[in-house]
Amino acid sequence: xxxxxxxxxxxxxxxxxxxxxxxxxxxxxxxxxxxxxxxxxxxxxxxxxxxxxxxxxxxxxxxx
Length: 64
Prior knowledge:
Number of domains: 1
Helix content: over 70%
Radius of gyration: 15 Å
Distance between the termini: 45 Å
Strand content: under 5%
Mean pLDDT: 78
Number of strands: 0
Low-confidence stretches: none
Shape: flat
Order of helices and strands: HHH
């Protein structure tokens, strides 16, 4: 568990640095994909899923 949290934090920091630098190359995209897979295996995954579902419901309910 402690190792996966360390990897998630490292990948998160790398993703933020890559996105702030402006260019997203294939290697940068791979880091972002790995971050997603690592986040999916943590205990935060259900919270993220529920948050995204709630956001999608709010957005779909907005009428222009």
